[in-house]
UniProtKB/TrEMBL annotation:
Belongs to the glutaredoxin family. Monothiol subfamily. The keyword Cell wall biogenesis/degradation does not apply. The gene is grxD. Keywords: 2Fe-2S, Iron, Iron-sulfur, Metal-binding, Redox-active center. This is Glutaredoxin. Residues 16-80 form the Glutaredoxin domain. The keyword Metal-binding applies.
Length: 106
C-alpha cells in the first residue's frame, strides 16, 4: 500500500484526523501542542497520526494536502488547516460546530 493509499484509508476511517508531531500526550512541537489543547477544549474525539513514525506518510501528506507544514487537521477527509487556522476557527466558535456536525464530540 502506498503512502497516499494509507493517508486515504486513515481519513476514511475517522471523521477527524490530526497529523501531528508526536502524540496528544507527548506533542513534539509547540504548534501540535496548541492544536491538541484546542481539540481538548472542544471535547473532540479524534484520531492522531504521529508523522515521525511514518516518514513516507510525512512526505506524501505534503503532496496530498498541498500544505507544507504540520500539524494538519482534517474533518470528513477535508483539510481544515494548521495551527493558526484551527485556533482562529476555535476562537470564532466555528470549530466546535464543525466537530459536532460529524459527531466527534465526547
Amino acid at each position: 500500500m502506498s503512502a497516499i493509499d494509507r493517508i486515504q484509508a486513515q481519513l476514511a476511517s475517522h471523521p477527524v484526523v490530526l497529523y501531528m508531531k508526536g502524540t496528544p500526550d507527548f506533542p513534539q512541537c509547540g504548534f501540535s501542542s496548541r492544536v491538541v489543547q484546542v481539540l481538548r477544549a472542544c471535547n473532540a474525539d479524534y484520531a492522531h497520526i504521529n508523522i515521525f513514525e511514518d516518514p513516507e506518510v510525512r512526505e506524501a501528506l505534503k503532496e496530498y494536502s498541498h500544505w507544507p507544514t504540520y500539524p494538519q487537521l482534517y474533518i470528513n477527509g477535508e483539510l481544515i488547516g494548521g495551527c493558526d487556522i484551527v485556533i482562529d476557527l476555535f476562537n470564532k466558535g466555528e470549530l466546535d460546530n464543525m466537530l459536532a456536525s460529524v459527531g466527534s464530540k465526547l
